[in-house]
């Protein structure tokens, strides 16, 4: 009896592997806004009519994630005949200017597009913006660690070195941040400090802040 059950199970698996009944008839793409569905489908490279069990969903997800604007993707089999692709796009944390144009960069320091920045995205000014640049990474850590009410006021974050990070607000006032060290404490200090009159707020040493 057990042997017959095993044989039957093997037969069902084999049938599912090869039968056109459980094959791809529809591919749905969700979550994408800036990446066209046609681009996702082309990169996905899954042919209709292919048995669902033969679809390598992990490899397909990696292909979709290779699109520059895509942070990551999930590909699922939905029986009896659908492949569902969920796309999570990169979100711009900053932009920086080059002779080629304005680059968008996400919070992980990945530059992924050359196009105008959305409203509210601050400018990054460092010598060598990029994932391998410690100055870039530290500047982004400072920015993303800020509480939303403070981050919403940032117009530019600039750094000449990892110990010389400066934040310019939309109204022109400046926060001298210093290094990424004690960023959480500096963020807590910055908001109430900005309630005082001044143009330059030095919080590089949170134990000895100055306002000019």
Can you offer a commentary on this structure?
This is FtsQ-type POTRA domain-containing protein. It is found in: Membrane. It comes from Rhodococcus oryzae. Residues 22-90 form the POTRA domain. With 212 residues, the protein is of the alpha/beta class. It has six helices and twelve strands. Strands 7-8-9-10-11-12 form a six-stranded mixed beta sheet, with helices on one face. Helix 2 crosses helix 3 (57-65). It is elongated.
Describe this protein with a few key phrases.
212 residues; alpha/beta; 6-stranded mixed sheet; 3-stranded mixed sheet; 29% helix; elongated; cell cycle; cell division; FtsQ-type POTRA domain-containing protein; transmembrane
List the topology elements:
Layout: H1 2-18, E1 26-30, H2 37-44, H3 57-65, E2 70-78, E3 82-89, E4 94-98, E5 101-105, E6 111-114, E7 123-125, H4 134-145, H5 148-151, E8 154-159, E9 165-169, E10 174-178, H6 183-193, E11 200-202, E12 210-211
Question: Multimeric state of these chains?
Answer: single chain
Series of secondary-structure elements, N-terminal to C-terminal: HEHHEEEEEEHHEEEHEE
Q: Would you tell me the overall average pLDDT?
A: 91
How many strand elements? 12
Give the count of helical stretches: 6
Structural class: alpha/beta
How would a textbook summarize the main sheet?
A: 6 strands, mixed
Intertermini distance: 87 Å
- Uncertain segments are 3-17
| β-sheet strand percentage | 25-35%
What fraction, in percent, of the residue positions are helical? Answer: 25-40%
General form: elongated
| Rg over alpha carbons | 25 Å
Widest β-sheet, arrangement of strands: 7-8-9-10-11-12
Keywords: Cell cycle, Cell division, Cell membrane, Membrane, Transmembrane, Transmembrane helix
Organism: Rhodococcus oryzae
Subcellular location: Membrane
Domain POTRA: 22-90
């Amino acid at each position: 009896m057990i042997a017959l059950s095993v044989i039957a199970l093997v037969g069902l698996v084999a049938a599912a592997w090869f039968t056109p009944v459980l094959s791809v008839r529809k591919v749905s793409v969700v979550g994408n806004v800036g990446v066209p569905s046609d681009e996702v489908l082309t990169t996905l490279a899954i042919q209709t009519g292919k048995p669902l069990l033969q679809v390598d969903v992990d490899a397909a997800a990696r292909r979709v994630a290779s699109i520059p604007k895509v942070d990551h993707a999930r590909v699922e089999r939905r029986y009896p005949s659908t492949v569902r692709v969920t796309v999570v796009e990169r979100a711009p944390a900053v932009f920086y200017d080059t002779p080629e144009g304005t680059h968008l960069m996400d919070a992980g320091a990945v530059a992924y597009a050359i196009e105008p920045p959305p409203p509210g995205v601050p400018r990054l000014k460092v010598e060598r913006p990029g994932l391998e640049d410690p100055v870039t990474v530290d500047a982004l850590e400072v920015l993303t660690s800020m509480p939303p009410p403070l981050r919403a006021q940032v117009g530019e974050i600039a750094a000449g070195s990892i110990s010389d990070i400066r934040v310019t607000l939309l109204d022109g006032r400046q926060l001298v941040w210093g290094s990424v060290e004690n960023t959480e404490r500096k963020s807590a200090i910055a908001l109430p400090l900005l309630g005082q009159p001044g143009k330059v707020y030095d919080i590089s040493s949170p134990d000895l802040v100055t306002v000019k």
